[in-house]
Amino acid sequence: MARERRLDILGIAASARKDSTSGAALDVVLARAAELGCRTRVIRLAEVRLPFCDGDKTAPWPEYPAVAELRRSVSLAHGVVLATPEYHGGMSGALKNALDLLDIPHARGKVFAGISALGGRSNSNALNQLRTSVRWLHGWMLPDQVAIPDARAAHAGGRFHDPEVTGRLTQLADELTHAARALALNTAPVPPQGGPDA
């Protein structure tokens, strides 16, 4: 009997705020994915040095090794969780820039999940922007998504006050893992694209 491939799940945290709600939500999703047997890792955009995208998706950016690491990490992942605060009705500029530094070969066929944290009422503005960007990168966005309203009051110490939020994040991890495994069983592993600076 063939051994089941172990899944790699990557989280990308967009917030620059320490102990952010979107970061705490991402941690819940990745912890659940690890419980399900996945290898997990996270890129926190506030901790890496990325250039502003100039439209040349093939640029190696040798002075910015974080670009190669971002591209390689997405290429090797079976599933990617994008977690962003919502600023002025959209995803964070840091996350949009990171997605702009990717190209189709890095994201094609990957399963993506979206999380947003809002200062006020719940809406889907940032999540809809994530869907648009992922679609342009030829990734698969899960139909489910999680928007967390009143973000600053939503959690303490990484624990969410409302068990429904934790439940939805756990469900998102379950769905991501299920979809990523289904795709992985039907496709060959995809190596990083474009050489050492992919």
From TrEMBL:
SUPFAM superfamilies: Flavoproteins. InterPro entries: Flavoprotein-like_sf, FMN_Rdtase-like_dom, NAD(P)H-dep_reductase. It comes from the Bacteria. One of its GO terms (cellular component) is cytosol. GO terms for molecular function: FMN binding; oxidoreductase activity. Residues 8-151 form the NADPH-dependent FMN reductase-like domain. This is YtkH.
